[in-house]
Each structure stands twice: as structure tokens, then as C-alpha cells.
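User: Before I run my own analysis I want an independent prediction to cross-check against. Here's the chain; please return only the C-alpha cells and, at the end, one sentence I can use as a sanity check.
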Amino acid sequence: MPAAKSFRELNVYLAARAGAREIFVLTKAFPREERYALVDQVRRSSRAIKAMVAEAWARRRYKAAFINKIDEAMGECNETQSWLDDAVDAGYLSSEDFGRVDQAYQGIGGMLSRMIDRADDFCKHAPATDYRTLRGDEPSAGDDSPCTIH
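Assistant: C-alpha cells:
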């Protein structure tokens, strides 16, 4: 597969975006009294995952910054699953809906974990790059990177 040119091409971003859309639709049926509690929390955490992936993409110049943002996205993924636990426990989600959405977030968490393990594949330059001497016309390590769309 070709290297991703945008965060919007990453499979993890696409999966997180689809998951956030699914949660938005499902939470429309939650009780009104949960509007400012459970509904807001699960929608916020599900949307934060894709936003943090996008931010990590922008910060991939520095491996530590990239990993930090992906790690935060993983935390939001787990938080989303925790809110889904509350929703199914309260009877707001069917077991079928819960299983489908939870499985999707398990997959997203797995992709995020692999991104951390393979951070060098995503980062623009080799870890030892001296950015003070890098000229704009020099190719970066990512230009010929074997990284695939994740």
C-alpha cells in the first residue's frame, strides 16, 4: 500500500470517524435526562480519538510528540468503551449494538497500539535527525518510507 499523505487516509482515522458517527446515531435514542451526562461524555470521547490522530499526524516530526498524542487517543478509546459499558448497563443500548460498537473500538485500540509500536514508520525524519541543519529541499526519511496506510 502507498504511504498515507494525510491523516484522513489512515485506517484508524476512518474507523474512529465511523465509530463516532455510530455513537452519535445510537445516543439520539438515549433518555433526555442523559443529554448532558452520558450522551455528551461518550460523544466527546469518541470524537476526541479521531481529533488526536489528526493532531498526532501533524506532530510526527517528533516521535515523542507523535506517541504522546496516539497514547492520548488510546485513552479516549478506552474512555469511550467505559461509557458504552454504562449505556448497556443502564439498558440504553441493546447487547447487539453494544457488541458491535465495542468490537469496533477494540479494533481502533489495536490500531492505535500498533501505531505506537511502529512510530518510526509514521514520523517524518529519522530519530537522529538534527533539525537545525535540515534544509527544505532535502528528502526526509518518510519520503521513501515503506509505511503503509494504517
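Sanity check: The longest helix spans residues 63-89.
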